[in-house]
Amino acid sequence: MDFTQLEGRLEATTTSPPTLASPSVSLEAEIPEALYIGMKDFINSNPQWDQYSLMSSALANFLFQNGSEDRAVTERYLNDLFGRDEA
Q1: What does the DSSP assignment read for 27-79?
Q2: pLDDT at 87 over 90
Q3: Model pTM greater than 0.70?
């Protein structure tokens, strides 16, 4: 599936303004083994985190720090920064 097809599917399924909580998109990515081990160790040491919340937080952090002006990204970034739970 190319980007155009993916974008079309997202537009067809999105009925409300996009947020980080809804709708969700499934991602698959290859990462270096060192990052995987670090993620696994972090999750094992911090039971309140799981792979989904960690990846969502990391992506929001990256996007915010690289100029994203999306309100949902900013909200997720600030909630993670100040240790607040998602609404």
Answers
A1: ------HHHHHHHHHHHHH-TT--HHHHHHHHHHHHHHHTT---HHHHHHHHH
A2: no
A3: no
